[in-house]
Amino acid sequence: MFSIKRQVGNQAEDIALKHLIQQGLTLIEQNYLTKVGEIDIIMLDKSEQVLVFVEVRYRKNTLFGSATDTVTPSKQTKIIRSAQHYLQQHDEFDEYICRFDVVGLESDLKYPKINWIKDAFEG
Hints:
The chain is an alpha+beta fold.
């Protein structure tokens, strides 16, 4: 059994994934785990030949900041290290440009406000 927090996280990731697919991106992998961290979603933006590492954040209440505000420099470092690990394991993406996006979902997950930030931080 997943915890309630994990169930909500999975639901938020599914919503983000559907949104990104509607925007023309293609799913490569979901929930890529390494010793240093996890990447929620890895996608391909074929229009730009870009490999996109996506962090999904959800906040029901924005009283203490937006969902995207929760991606701290420490979290960014973990995502970058995880992406480096992924790239070392997948040489088919050697020629691709990499981008780090954040998808923030806020409010009720039935009708969330979606904030997609492309190129949210440097890799």
